[in-house]
Amino acid sequence: MRKTRVGIADDHPFVLLGVEHILQSCVDIKTCFRSESIAELLDLLVEVPVDVLLCDYEFEGDPQADGLNLLDRIQRVAPATQVVFLSAHCSTYIVSAALNAGAAGFIGKGREGIQNLATAIRSVRSGIVYLPDSLANKMMSTMGHVAENNASLSALSEKEATVVRMICDGMSIRAIAKRLKRSPKTVSNQKNAGMKKLGVKNDVELVTIVREWN
User: Fold this and answer.
1) Which of 1.10.10.10, 3.40.50.300, 3.40.50.10330, 1.20.58.480 is the CATH number of 145-213?
2) What pTM was estimated for this model as a whole?
3) How many Å apart are CA 15 and CA 174, to the nearest integer?
4) What is the 3-state secondary structure (H, E, C) of 1-42?
5) What per-residue confidence (pLDDT) applies to 208?
């Protein structure tokens, strides 16, 4: 049986060495390369094709370092490679957005995530999206909250719904006010009214609900 070819990418050398060390004892996994920069990573993915890429979600010093932008670039040069993100920040919004964009898994850089690297690789190689138990439970809890609030989505007025969608597209209150020709105070009030109707307390919960709505 052919070994699963794996690449590792992280801008912290100690993380690269640690991950590679953990995978050395896995007879069914072969580490083909490790990379400390996005530019080098994209070149290596073309030169040394891999089945699974364990990749940091954010690279310091890169103007387009966020995971979603990086995932898009990876998929362009290596569409067959399954990407499992590693990150110290595992908010449900970030994880949900990454999986929706096509990531095959998401692992925290804590003990649980690192100890299950081989399991993650084997899972995604078999076509199963991988999340550690703690992260999966966190996602389920958030989705349960979304489900409880879904019935109230229709309660938003047309103006509130427009503002909420634009907030979730990353626009600021000031930018929305300019686009809609409303005052910033009016836009802020409509946002707050929409959040109250949806039963959310912050922008992360708001984005999660609207993504499910869409």
Assistant:
1) 1.10.10.10
2) 0.67
3) 40
4) CCCEEEEEECCCHHHHHHHHHHHCCCCCEEEEEEECCHHHHH
5) 67
CATH fold label, 4-134: Rossmann fold (3.40.50)
Looking at residue 124, its pLDDT comes to 93
- Residues forming CATH 1.10.10.10 domain(s) in the chain: 145-213
Cα dihedral 184, 185, 190, 192, rounded to 10, equals 110
CB 33 within 8 A of CB 7: yes
Residue stretches of the chain with pLDDT short of 70: 61-65, 93, 138-154, 204-205, 208-214
CB 87 within 8 A of CB 67: yes
pLDDT digits (tens, 9 = 90+) for 104-130: 999 988 877 788 899 999 999 988 889
| Element (DSSP H or E) covering residue 107 | strand 105-108
